[in-house]
Design brief:
Structural class: alpha+beta
Largest sheet: 11 strands, mixed
Number of helices: 10
Strand content: 25-35%
Order of helices and strands: EEHHHHHEEEEHHEEEEHHEEEEEEEHEE
Helix content: 10-25%
């Protein structure tokens, strides 16, 4: 997988996780054997273990393998692996623009941007999807025609807490259940990933960018998408406020914008058109409010 450090040179990403998943999803026998391990039941059991003190022995090897620094973390010791994985960073470690018309990234991730048209499908992890398939709602999908789909792919070494990108009134969360498949690109050629992954989304009537839709997509071994106050509707949220976090695993966030509301950065559009992801940090400016 190719990605570009924002405004920097293009690099090739091929992690141990990538290589293992290529082997698993590249053969019919291993795809069959993996089925029990991608169910919500297994994910729940795995999540319980990763929440326990017994899982602490996994932390140090994981840090070394993925070259993770704890310098920005609020704390350096953890009660479980998931306590480490969902660690908070120190205040101001992810600054964002004070200009309210700058659209900011909700998370650390590899980002691609796609225009949304009436007939468009989206090449997401080497598989094509319609917006209706992602949302399971034809009327809602039409609401975002002419806008953009921002796809944020979080790797295991990324910060797994995410924020709201603008002041807004938020709807209640809608949950779409599904079998938990990895969002790693290796799986995409064999499994319709986003049709099977569990996901949650809400609508945000934002102050500066029209109506936004933010969706979190779970992945293998991610039993929980932890969004705060998920059952509350019509609540006021603030730009930079924490929206939630993922438990262990690589995960994905989608941000949908309406027609003539957001203009993505031109470099993001250019790299995305070439199939290259852009590495961004939470709070980085990725676009601006559209002005006629």
């Amino acid at each position: 997988m190719r990605y570009c450090a924002y405004k920097d040179h293009i690099e090739q990403e091929n992690t141990l996780q990538d290589r293992i998943l290529e082997q698993i999803y590249g053969h019919a026998a291993t795809r069959f054997l993996i089925r029990p391990f991608i169910t919500p039941a297994f994910s729940k059991i795995a999540g319980q273990f990763l929440d326990s003190r017994a899982s602490r022995f996994l932390i140090r090897p994981f840090i070394r393998l993925n070259h993770i620094s704890l310098r920005e973390c609020e704390k350096k010791t953890f009660s479980s692996f998931n306590d480490f994985f969902t660690r908070r960073l120190k205040k101001d470690s992810r600054p964002f623009s004070e200009n309210p018309k700058h659209l900011i990234s909700p998370c650390d991730a590899r980002l691609t941007v796609y225009p949304i048209t009436q007939t468009s499908t989206f090449r997401i992890k080497n598989t094509r999807y319609t917006l209706e398939q992602l949302l399971k709602n034809e009327t809602l999908a039409r609401h975002f025609e002419g806008g953009f789909l921002f796809l944020f792919r979080l790797s295991v070494d990324d910060y797994h807490r995410y924020i709201y990108v603008d002041d807004a009134i938020r709807s209640a969360e809608r949950t779409i259940d599904g079998v938990l498949h990895t969002v790693n690109p290796a799986a995409a050629g064999q499994v319709p990933i986003y049709k099977e992954n569990c996901r949650e989304y809400s609508l945000l009537k934002s102050r500066h960018f029209g109506t936004l839709l933010q969706m979190e997509v779970g992945a293998m071994m991610v039993g929980k998408i932890v969004n705060h106050k998920k059952r509350c509707s019509g609540i006021s949220v603030k730009r930079g406020q924490e929206r939630g976090y993922f438990a262990f695993g690589g995960s994905t966030i989608l941000l949908l914008t309406q027609h003539d509301k957001v203009l993505p950065n031109s470099e993001l559009l250019s790299l995305s058109a070439r199939g290259i992801e852009t590495k961004v940090l939470q709070g980085e400016t990725i676009g601006k409010a559209f002005c006629l």
